[in-house]
Amino acid sequence: MKTISFILNGKKTVVEVRDSETLLYALRERLGITSVKEGCEIGECGTCTVLIDDEPHYSCMTLASKANGSDVKTVEFLGTADLLHPLQEAFINSGAVQCGYCTPGMLLSAYSLLLKNKDPDTDDIREAISGNLCRCTGYIQIVEAIKDAAGLCKHNS
Amino acid sequence: MLPDFASIIAETKEEALSCLSSLERAKVIAGGTDLMVKMRSGERYDHIIDITNIRELDGIAVKDGVVVIGPVATHARLGSDAAIRENAPGLALACSLVGSPQIRNMGTIGGNIVNASPAADSIPPMLIHDAMLTLESKGSSRKVRLEDIIVAPYKTSINTRELLGPVEITSLKGYREGYFRVAKRATWAISRLSVAWAISEEEGTFKDVKLAIGSCTPMPFRAVKVEGLLRGEKRQPGIIAEAVRIALEEIKLISGIRPSFAYKLPVLRGILENVLGGE
Question: The complex's ipTM?
Answer without folding.
Answer: 0.95
